[in-house]
Design brief:
This protein has helices spanning 16-27, 33-46, 51-58, 62-75, 94-106, 117-124, 128-137, 156-168, 238-251, 271-279, 298-308, 318-334, 345-361; strands spanning 174-190, 209-222, 228-233, 257-262, 283-287. It is of the alpha/beta class and 366 residues long. The chain has a 5-stranded mixed β-sheet, sandwiched between helices.
Length: 366
């Protein structure tokens, strides 16, 4: 299909390797739209489409099709990026840029833990805007800090597969419960009245408060229904944990096995608890890896309890606090919302490897 009238169309030739790469750009959901259009222009031109057909296929304007068809004809389809723009020549060469990057990654400024723009400008002998441009170009953000924790559990892989297996493929004739404790919940009361919200004015409350005691909350989240079984206690020992297990034993029908997902807290593994389990064979414990509380879905319920009730509530006594928690849990159970686990164990391992690889292979702190 040739170009009818006017100047002859620029002929675009691409290799099979380039064709495969361009098709991958078109398929990828994260490809920049400009790259997708340019890839379609190259593919359409190589396939012999007319100028009008390429416009319809790529969604690009006629000017854009002509521009990139000519570029691909002259220089090939090796890149979809814009050509470097003309402008003021760089003041600093590659050596100075490399020095700024090296200082940022491999050193610390005197009297500080990380570089600031002005400090780096003085150390490298350049202007602060130059530092900002280099940091932006190479994605360097010395002011940002992220925390992470890697489990040191020797049975990490086995525990992840065990817990994820319960989430994604729960056993029949059984109930899977995510169990944990939220300890030392404080009954706090403000020393001054709360000032209500008004137009243009947020709710206001004093920063000073009175402590009126604490309570501990045991919770068991049913992963299938989203319902929660709760118990508040004054202390946080193995005896209170066993008391909660007895409560679960009474409330869950006897014809169901119970699989409990727990963390590695000491009260879950005492001799008294092990003795109790022998006498209650329908209970099965599944421990998450150390430092992996994110694997226990009841933590998400605790988070909602905190943000929707505890953070902004006021209680004059522990009894008032426990009634408030129970009322909130009852309201939750009236319309429970189960949390859905979606990632497989292999996907978790792959995500962790991808996250940690540049950190463990790069510069590390002693």
């Amino acid at each position: 299909m040739g170009n009818r009238g006017g100047r002859p169309a620029h002929v675009v030739c691409i290799t099979e390797e380039e064709k495969a790469r361009l098709e991958e750009v078109v398929r990828a959901t994260k490809s920049p739209q400009a790259h997708v259009k340019r890839a379609k222009i190259a593919l359409g031109a190589a396939a012999g489409m007319s100028h009008t057909e390429i416009i319809e296929y790529s969604g690009a304007s006629g000017f854009t099709v002509s521009k990139w068809r000519k570029r691909f004809s002259l220089y090939g389809a090796g890149t979809l990026d814009d050509a470097p723009r003309s402008g003021t020549p760089r003041t600093h060469g590659d050596d100075k840029i490399a020095e700024i990057i090296r200082l940022t990654l491999e050193s610390e400024p005197p009297g500080a833990t990380h570089w600031s723009g002005p400090a780096m400008a003085r150390a490298a002998g350049v202007s602060q805007p130059t530092v900002a441009r280099v940091w932006k170009a190479f994605g360097l953000k010395p002011h940002l800090l992220q925390y992470y924790t890697v489990s040191n559990d020797p049975n990490f892989t086995e525990k992840v597969r065990d817990v994820v297996g319960l989430y994604l493929n729960p056993p029949e004739a059984a109930l899977v419960l995510c169990v944990d404790e939220k300890t030392q919940i404080q009954a706090l009361n403000r020393t001054q009245p709360v000032l209500p919200m008004g137009p243009g004015v947020p709710e206001r409350r004093t920063t000073e408060y009175v402590r009126n005691g604490t309570t501990n909350l045991y919770a068991a989240l049913e992963i299938a229904s989203g319902k929660v079984i709760t118990k508040t206690t004054r202390a946080h020992r193995a005896v209170e944990f066993i008391s909660f297990l007895n409560q679960l034993d009474k409330e869950v029908p006897t014809d169901l096995e119970l699989h409990l997902i727990l963390d590695n807290y000491a009260t879950h593994k005492t001799e008294a608890v092990r003795t109790w389990l022998i006498a209650h064979p329908r209970f099965h414990f599944h421990f998450t890896p150390t430092y992996s509380s994110w694997m226990n879905l009841v933590e998400r319920w605790f988070s909602e309890l905190t943000t929707k009730l505890l953070q902004r509530s006021a209680h004059r006594s522990v009894a008032e606090l426990t009634r408030s928690i129970q009322a909130w849990a009852d309201t939750w159970n009236d319309d429970p919302r189960p949390y859905r686990w979606t990632k497989t164990a292999d996907e978790i391992f792959a995500s962790m490897a991808k996250y940690l690889e540049p950190r463990l292979n790069g510069r590390t702190s002693e």
